[in-house]
Amino acid sequence: MLSPDYPVETERLLLRPFHRDDLGDFHAYHSRADVVRYLFQEVHGLEQARVALERNIGRAALTEEGQRLILAVATRQDGQLVGEIHLEWLSRKHRQGEIGFIFNPEYQGRGFASEAAWAVLGLGFEDLGLHRIVGHCDARNHPSARLMERLGMRREAHLVHHRIFKGEWDEEFVYAILEREWRER
User: Fold this and answer.
1) In which band, very low, low, confident or very high, does the pLDDT at 103 lie, cut at 50, 70 and 90?
2) Could you check whether the bond before residue 7 is cis, i.e. omega within 30 degrees of 0?
3) Angle at which helices 46-56 and 23-30 pack, to 10 degrees?
4) CA separation (Å) from 149 to 69, 90, 112, 165?
5) What pTM does this model have?
6) In whole angstroms, what is the distance from residue 44 CA to residue 64 CA?
7) pLDDT tens for residues 40-63?
8) How far apart are CA 89 and CA 157, in angstroms?
């Protein structure tokens, strides 16, 4: 089980549950074609963003496998929402999880995603007791692939033409890191 004391603080960030006041900033990046290009969603209008945000509200604990923790990532300096990060509990028996992230391009290139992801890996390994955490990204999504590599995740698979995604065959990278590898970093 994982129920962090919020906010989870890093040097520059606050990771916290979403709340309704996040709608404007949440919509700002979910309404961008360059953000949703590699996501299983289309560009969100304001009402679609409201519905998506409502689904994220309250997903702040993991009590059983199959659940997903979804956290807002905000700056400590001014509380600005810069993105979101999730940790899914894939298997209790095999101690497996999955990490994912979506960040507003206006805040990319500042190390926020790395800082937030490192903290969430810590939640998964230290607090939830996971043995292995995976991450997936479209092979064309170079920033996501580079982020996982910076985190010390190794590319374990390159799936070629494994599904039709948004009208075309896609390719996917699968990354993973073990608890001992994370601790060694």
Assistant:
1) very high
2) yes
3) 110
4) 22, 21, 15, 24
5) 0.94
6) 30
7) 777 788 899 999 999 999 899 999
8) 20
